[in-house]
Design a protein that fits this description.
It contains 20 helices and 19 strands. Strands 8, 9, 10, 14, 16, 17, 18 and 19 form an 8-stranded mixed β-sheet that branches. Strands 1-2-3-4-5-6-7 form a 7-stranded mixed β-sheet, with helices on both faces. Strands 11-12 form a two-stranded antiparallel ribbon. Helix 13 packs parallel to helix 15. It starts with a helix and ends in a 16-residue tail after the last helix.
């Protein structure tokens, strides 16, 4: 019996359990009473609507479920950003579904709601996926209108994207299943087809109270903008549904009629499970982010039959580059090796650190995958690039720049899994959020920050103490220790994966056992969008 393996397994499974408990709470949206009120109004909840619409809700993946976590608490919170987003299949066709959660502030849009909706549209546009909007929203959350209304990546960008997607030929279908007011009224009407649920759905630029205040007209909301009005008088909506399920059934029927489109042509063969037990990931990954482990053992538990073909195995060993298959799909893997290695020159190199030779190797491998039209999978557990005079004199900056260049200009779809650390410029080189991965997800124990907690705390304490000394204040040992503890706690909170997921720096926190499913779903989505650009690295410093 391996005691360290068992300790790791216990710690990591406990962390997964914490994330699962938090997810279960988030799925309740505005709470039991709000969910009950939704049912009393004759409406399904956002999650019930999606579950009914999809062929198999269990096979779907949820985007940004943790968005808004512990944000806007002074406003009552915004679980899951007040909107549920899933990628799944409807009538056998892969789609992305966006459903307002009316149990959270009547589905009102907070700043993070806008960011999440834009992320959903980005996924649809990158992968040319049909997008389904299930609308039930009171519009912009007025107390925070200055943070959601006027800027480039705010509320108005949603409708700009509606227009752009229509021009791209991306299918958009909307069902108005509750409130749909003000600027938000444009979203469903800019879709290809729009339906409205009788008696519960309504759509107007201004509700009855605002109409009364603006022009003095007395009118009720149903007459102003209900299903009968828009299906029989204005012609704004295309179909009237008798209830939620009727509207969702109509969407299913529309999806049945849609023809297929040109594919990107990524290679896929028969799928095989890994020969090595994926459950062992929990015991292999150390309980502490600073400890070493062998990344080869992780790769073996993610790829089909645990087989992979490594590129330059004896060179640049702190990054592992290999081709393999995941659920039958051909992939190129770029992974940080987390154990200490010895270079061909006999020098010891730290695990999780990018050196010049490993950056060079990864750059060439990424170029090869682009040449061969192979999607890239980044397994990120990186502490950064190597520092010090030897590395600087050896040109680590230009070698790192080559890798960043290759990642940025890569035209094949990229998928990033943060398995442990994601620190500093290593995050960039290993395809962090800024480098447009089609999907980026974290394992429950991942940490994301500009540098590790202990290093950052020391730097921040030194800065603060220096500032106080300039003001003529002397720091006692007790004050120093208290300052260290306060700064460390605050910084550590910001590095936790829940903090990252709340702000949609990652698309999801996933069970490692679901990694293959996420990658496979992502490549299937990417296969809907043929590659039209040419791979060009641009200028490289040599």
């Amino acid at each position: 019996m391996d005691l360290q393996f068992n300790k790791n397994e216990d710690t990591n499974k406990l962390r997964l359990s914490e994330i699962n408990q938090l997810y279960a709470k988030i799925k309740k949206g505005g709470g039991e009473k709000a969910l009950q009120k939704q049912h009393e109004q004759g409406k399904l909840t956002a999650r019930e609507r999606i579950a009914y619409l999809l062929d198999n809700d269990d096979e779907a993946i949820e985007i940004a479920a943790f968005a808004g976590h512990e944000m806007y608490e002074e406003h009552g919170g915004c679980p899951s950003a007040g909107v549920v987003v899933k990628i799944g299949k409807i009538s056998g066709k892969q789609c992305i579904v966006v459903a307002n959660d009316a149990t959270v502030k009547a589905g009102a849009w907070f700043p993070i709601t806008g960011k999440k909706n834009l992320r959903a549209q980005e996924i649809a546009m990158e992968n040319r996926l049909p997008i389904i909007y299930l609308v039930d929203s009171a519009g912009v959350y007025l107390p925070m209108q200055d943070e959601i209304f006027p800027d480039k990546e705010h509320f108005g960008r949603i409708f700009r994207n509606n227009a752009k997607m229509s021009a791209m030929g991306i299918i958009q279908i909307s069902a108005i299943m509750g409130s749909c007011v003000a600027g938000g009224a444009y979203l469903p009407i800019m879709s290809d087809e729009a339906m409205i649920v009788d008696k519960t759905g309504s759509i107007f630029l201004a509700g009855s109270y605002l109409v009364k205040a603006a022009i003095g007209e007395n009118i009720d909301n149903e007459t102003l903008g209900g299903a009968t009005t828009h299906c029989e008088i204005s012609g704004v909506t295309d179909y009237k549904a008798k209830d939620d399920k009727d509207a969702l059934d109509r969407i299913k029927n529309i999806m049945k009629s849609i023809g297929d489109f040109e594919k990107a042509g990524f290679d896929r063969t028969e799928s095989f499970p890994p020969k090595e037990n994926p459950e062992e990931i929990f015991g292999i990954i150390p309980a502490s982010r600073s400890e070493q482990y062998d990344t080869y053992e992780i790769i073996k538990r993610l790829v089909d039959q645990s087989k992979f073909e490594e590129y330059k195995p004896d060179y640049g060993k702190t990054i592992i580059c290999a081709t393999a298959r995941i659920d039958g799909w051909s992939v190129g893997i770029v992974a940080n090796q987390r154990k200490m290695v010895k270079s061909g020159k006999g020098e010891m190199q730290f695990g999780g650190v990018i050196y010049s030779d490993s950056a060079d190797k990864a750059t060439r491998f990424i170029a090869n995958c682009n040449q061969r039209k192979i999607p890239l999978v980044f397994l990120q557990d990186v502490t950064g690039f190597m520092v010090g005079s030897k590395s600087e004199h050896g040109g680590i900056i230009k070698d790192g720049a080559k890798m960043v260049n290759a990642v940025a200009n890569s035209i094949v779809p990229k998928f990033t899994i943060i398995t442990g650390n994601s620190f500093g410029a290593g995050n960039y080189a290993m395809c962090g959020k800024a480098y447009d991965p089609r999907l980026i997800v974290s394992w429950p124990w991942a940490e994301l920050a500009v540098m590790g907690g202990s290093q950052a705390a020391k730097v921040l304490v030194q800065i603060q103490e220096s500032t106080l000394k300039k003001q003529g204040k002397e720091i006692t040992t007790e004050e120093h220790n208290a300052l260290v503890e306060k700064i460390t706690q605050n910084y550590t909170k910001q590095t936790k994966v829940e903090y990252s997921a709340a702000r949609i720096w990652v698309d999801a926190i996933i069970n490692p056992l679901d990694t293959r499913k996420w990658i496979s779903t992502g490549i299937e989505a990417a296969n809907n969008s043929p590659i039209t650009d040419k791979f060009n690295l641009g200028i490289i410093q040599v």
